[in-house]
């Protein structure tokens, strides 16, 4: 063990996390992303992936990746503004913009970097204010804090409280930004975008939606929560979504007006100073996007599985949270108990992750069940049977 006293604080924090049942360890997978996997040397039926449409291991997506890798190599070699912007990158940006009904789209290497880049590009003065839902994703929280703007967090989905905060800042704020998840990643519920859009327009504020967990899944065509709620680009001028969830690849994009995207190209540091994602990823995402548009049965099947799980869980009396999305959290409470139930499920051949603080508030540890179009009704029934054995 390292005897340097500087490490004492680190060891104390690690020990504290272990004692509070908050320690985390990565698992090692020896199979592709799919419901039935080999993880840590065991065959497990998994319910903890964000591969909502089952596209991460789709043959057409793999084939597009392989073909592009043969043509463009593995790495992009440079940032987009140097010489790392390839034809597949450009084609993907254009296709994403058309799909979500925006003038332009801009690729980022990750959703985290997209959120950091946009918020810090827009909020540049000491009188700027960002209003953030209290349950926003960590990337939105960090983006708000790093911007240096005044951060005002409002209670989850409480538009009345947000309205009071907007009024209180009316005479002092310069640039204002309302920042929210579309689908909240740990609760599975959705943001009231209609009300947020009305408030943003009334107070001359930007509205930015992180639709990482809605894009590809929600709406008539899968364009996400903005489409599902019947809103326009004027209502929600800044849309961010990730590509590593429903689309099954990696990266993220921001979509908006020509002026917004051009501004981000010139000012978003996480775009300017980052190596572009591999061209093969962009090519694979183009193939995945086509599947989203042509295979609507995936969304329909996913919705049927959600209903099956919720009905079965209700019959068992499980403490489900109010979610109609593929994210179906079972509220447990204590971290120790959530871990214990997760281990019992694993003993029965199922992998369901225990989500604990600080990812969720203290006292709200949960099992985060996520469903995929790659699951079958038999898979869901197997999970419900195991939960019945443990909960009763």
UniProtKB/TrEMBL annotation:
GO terms for molecular function: 8-amino-7-oxononanoate synthase activity; pyridoxal phosphate binding. Keywords: Acyltransferase, Biotin biosynthesis, Pyridoxal phosphate, Transferase. The modification N6-(pyridoxal phosphate)lysine is found at residue 245. The keyword Acyltransferase applies. Pathway: Cofactor biosynthesis; biotin biosynthesis. Pyridoxal 5'-phosphate binds at residues 111-112, 185, 213, 242. The keyword Acyltransferase applies. Residues 44-387 form the Aminotransferase class I/classII large domain. Substrate binds at residues 24, 137, 359. It catalyses: 6-carboxyhexanoyl-[ACP] + L-alanine + H(+) = (8S)-8-amino-7-oxononanoate + holo-[ACP] + CO2. It is an enzyme of class 2 (transferase). InterPro entries: Aminotrans_II_pyridoxalP_BS, Aminotransferase_I/II_large, AON_synthase_class-II, AONS_Archaea/Proteobacteria, AONS_Proteobacteria, PyrdxlP-dep_Trfase, PyrdxlP-dep_Trfase_major, PyrdxlP-dep_Trfase_small. Its cofactor is pyridoxal 5'-phosphate. Its EC number is 2.3.1.47. One of its GO terms (biological process) is biotin biosynthetic process. Homodimer. HAMAP family: BioF_aminotrans_2. Catalyzes the decarboxylative condensation of pimeloyl-[acyl-carrier protein] and L-alanine to produce 8-amino-7-oxononanoate (AON), [acyl-carrier protein], and carbon dioxide. Belongs to the class-II pyridoxal-phosphate-dependent aminotransferase family. BioF subfamily. This is 8-amino-7-oxononanoate synthase. It comes from Thiothrix fructosivorans. The gene is bioF.
């Amino acid at each position: 063990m390292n005897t340097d006293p500087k490490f004492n604080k680190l060891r104390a924090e690690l020990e504290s996390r272990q004692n509070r049942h908050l320690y985390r360890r990565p698992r090692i997978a020896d199979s592709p992303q799919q419901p039935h996997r080999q993880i840590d040397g065991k065959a497990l039926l998994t319910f903890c992936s964000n591969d909502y449409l089952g596209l991460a291991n789709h043959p057409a997506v793999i084939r597009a990746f392989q073909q592009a890798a043969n043509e463009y190599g593995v790495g992009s070699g440079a940032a987009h503004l140097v010489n790392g912007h390839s034809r597949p990158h450009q084609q993907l940006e254009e296709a994403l913009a058309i799909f979500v009904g925006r003038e332009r789209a801009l690729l980022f290497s990750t959703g985290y970097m997209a959120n950091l880049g946009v918020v810090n590009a827009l909020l540049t003065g000491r009188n700027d204010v960002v209003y953030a839902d209290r349950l926003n994703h960590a990337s939105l929280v960090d983006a708000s804090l790093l911007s240096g703007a005044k951060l005002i967090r409002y209670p989850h989905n409480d538009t009345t409280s947000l309205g009071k905060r907007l009024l209180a800042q009316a005479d002092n704020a310069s640039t204002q930004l309302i920042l929210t998840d579309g689908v909240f990643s740990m609760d599975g519920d959705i943001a009231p975008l209609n009300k947020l859009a009305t408030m943003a327009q009334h107070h001359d504020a930007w509205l930015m939606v992180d639709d990482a967990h809605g894009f590809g899944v929600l709406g008539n065509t899968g364009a996400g929560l903005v489409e599902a709620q019947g809103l326009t680009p004027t209502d929600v001028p800044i849309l961010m979504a990730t590509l590593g969830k429903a689309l099954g690849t990696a990266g993220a994009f921001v979509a908006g007006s020509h002026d917004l995207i051009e501004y981000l190209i010139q000012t978003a540091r996480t775009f300017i100073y980052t190596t572009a994602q591999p061209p093969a990823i962009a090519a694979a995402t183009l193939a995945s996007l086509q599947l989203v548009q042509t295979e609507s049965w995936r969304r329909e099947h996913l919705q049927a599985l959600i209903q099956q799980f919720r009905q079965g869980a209700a019959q068992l009396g499980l403490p489900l949270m109010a979610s109609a999305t593929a994210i179906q959290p079972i509220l447990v409470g204590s971290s120790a108990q959530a871990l214990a139930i997760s281990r019992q499920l694993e003993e029965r051949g199922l992998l369901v992750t225990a989500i604990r603080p600080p990812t969720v508030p203290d006292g709200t540890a949960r099992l985060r069940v996520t469903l995929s179009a790659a699951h079958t009704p038999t898979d869901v029934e197997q999970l419900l049977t195991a939960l019945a054995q443990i909960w009763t």
